[in-house]
Every structure is written in structure tokens, then in C-alpha cells.
Amino acid sequence: MSPFEICSELPTADAFKALYDTTAWGPASRDAAFYQAALAGSWRVRAAYAEGRLLGFARVISDGHLHAFITEMIVHPEHHGRGIGSALLKGLLEECRAAGVTDIQLFCAKGKSAFYARHGFVARPGEAPGMQYCPPT
Question: Is residue 66 a contact partner of residue 101, using CB atoms and an 8 Å limit?
Fold first, then answer.
């Protein structure tokens, strides 16, 4: 496998959509403009490429001072286990710390908690504040 490069620039909306669609987190019918609008709300980003192909992406939504939320930590399934996710996450954590942001949170995909624990994250206690909106179906 070829090595990958990490950069701190937004991918194209088409490349992000293609990567996002590998997760089954949302309907594939969303167009690239939907993802372009989402990307515009990013505070910091990291993208992994090999031979011009987007292999992984992660971003932070933040006020730049108090709170940061890491979201869309995605590595293409064909490239799991190559250290791409670790490189993306480490870069974003460095950006947060450099800005003085220490409250860094994320939602963890099912079965991925061990990955985040290796990078210093801990599960929030059951009595900790916070709720997630779940619209009625």
C-alpha cells in the first residue's frame, strides 16, 4: 500500500460525499452541495490522501476558545489499520491544544471506543450533563 499524506485543507464536497457514503450514516441521495455546506462550518480539519484520493477525513466544530467537538472521523474501510485515523485525530488534538481549547468532545461510533481511549478519551459518566436529540420516527 502506498503511503498517505495528511493536510489541513478541506476536501472537495464530491470527495467528502464519497467518503461519507462509505459509513452508511446518512442517505446516499444527498448531493455534494449538502456536504459543501456542512464543510463550511468546520473550524479545523485534517484530510488523508494517497495518489490524490481522499482516504480519511476528520473535522472540528468549535468556538475556538472553550469547546471543541470532533466529528466525521472517517477512514475509508479499505484503509483501516494503516494509522490514518490516529494521524487525523492527533493533528486535530494538537490544533485544539494550541488554541487553548481543553474541552474536547466527540460521539464515538459503535465499537470504536478502544481507538479513542488509546488517544486519551474517556466515556462520560452516566450522570454527566448532555443529551442528544433523537427525533421521533
Answer: yes
Q: What is the dihedral of CA 91, 92, 95, 99, to 10 degrees?
A: -160
Neighbours of 132 (CB within 10 A): 5
Instruction: Judge contact between 68 and 60, C-beta under 8 A.
Output: yes
Q: Exposed, middle or buried: residue 69 (CB in 10 Å: 0-12, 13-18, 19+)? A: middle
**Mean pLDDT for each consecutive 10-residue tract of the chain (137 residues)?**
90 97 92 96 98 97 95 95 97 96 88 90 78 66
Closest to 54 (Cα-Cα) out of 109, 10, 108: 10
